[in-house]
Amino acid sequence: MDLSLTNARVIVTAGAGGIGRAIVEGFMAEGAHVATCDIDVSGLDSLPDGVFHRAVDVSDAVALGTFMDDAVQALGGLDCLVNNAGIAGPTGRIEDILLDAVQECLNICLISQFTTIGCAVPHLRKSANASIINVSSLAGRLGFKLRSPYAAAKWGVIGLTKSMAMELGDDGIRVNALLPGLVAGDRQRRVLEARANAQGVSFEEAERDAFARTSIKEYVTPEQLADQVVYLASARARTISGQAISVCGDTGMLG
What we know:
Layout: E1 9-13, H1 18-29, E2 33-38, H2 41-45, E3 52-55, H3 61-75, E4 80-83, H4 99-124, E5 130-135, H5 139-142, H6 148-168, E6 173-180, H7 186-199, H8 203-211, H9 222-233, E7 244-247
Helix pairs in contact: 1-9, 3-4, 4-6, 7-8
């Protein structure tokens, strides 16, 4: 399917590895021009030629804003912003979680999206096919026991997405949220390991429990998520906005 994204100008946060890298490569396969930031310098350096990139901690609003401005200039404008940056946050009961860890999770998973959207909107208004895709999580719809900071941040992303869809609709800017389920990769393994440790069970038991309420009992791949993002950025999705779209194998509960 030709998604007509040749020469589209796209910014993806946290694009050096995992889901972000799959999104970067998915856009490049469609002929788009891409810029990304990450804290993983070696991952950035291994990106395909032609990707504008910079090492940035998205919790640093000043550095992130500077990157956004420079990326838009390098791309010659902006058609799509993908807010992918996030961390797992702390695992534990609410009385045991340190406030600094909560703040870090909120800063990276949620507050950074306010920064990037604020920087992006003036440029997106000039695009004939403008879109924002915010990566949330199934935890943003269902909650997640022992990971309340992460779930709270991801619920916030969905609220931000819906509000921005309403606010920016008259400007022709579509805004949607992506809700991944259990995603294949090191990050998901670390999450399950932390959960297993917190509950005093084996990794295998934690993994079985994670899939117990999922209809399709297999991990979602980063490439599947990238396919959804690229489609949402295309003009074929021109009337899809304000949606929280799950790619999760029909998971009914987390935790």
